[in-house]
Fold this sequence. Notes:
By secondary structure, the protein is α+β, with helices and mostly antiparallel strands. The chain folds into two domains: 4-44, Winged helix-like DNA-binding domain superfamily/Winged helix DNA-binding domain (Arc Repressor Mutant, subunit A); 54-171, Lrp/AsnC effector binding domain/regulation of amino acid metabolism (RAM) domain (Alpha-Beta Plaits), CATH 3.30.70. The protein contains five helices and four strands, in the order αααβαββαβ. It has a four-stranded antiparallel beta sheet. Helix 2 (21-28) packs across helix 3 (32-44). It is elongated and about 55 Å long. Mean pLDDT is 88; it is low at 153-171.
Amino acid sequence: MIDVIDTQILTILQSEARTSNAEIARQVGLxxxxxxxxxxxxxxxxxxxxxxxxxxxxxLDRTTLxxxxxxxxxxxxxxxxxxCLAEIPSVLEVHHVAGEDCYLAKVxxxxxxxxxxxxxxxxxxxxxxASTRTTIVLETIKETSKLPxxxxxxxxxxEPASEPVGAEVGA
Length: 171
């Protein structure tokens, strides 16, 4: 599906999306025009879904991270609850899961009070939500969106751990 050079390009962009086309070309040993063509083809094929800045949650006063398991009353195959959850700005991820619960949502808010309000007002306003179970994160050891590329799953190296979050949560 992708060759060695495409793998190198993806690895570079995944590590630092702001790497210039000229620098990528230098690193993979191609002309800048050929590299740009490969990047565009990777984008067109959906291998590169987009580029975004990774923001500091603490700097934006979003220090409370939680995972919310959601049980929904939906007909089999229906996923309207998931679409409603995905519309909530504080919800970072929504996963349709197997097991007792139907969805797993990753949320980031200002405080435990804000989390309670989110659950009551936002999640609670979705008619098909039957119940929720919430786990508050005390410390993040690893958080990444980087995918292993090629045969060597460690080629991008480990990502440094982020600062502890949820410090306002009492133990």
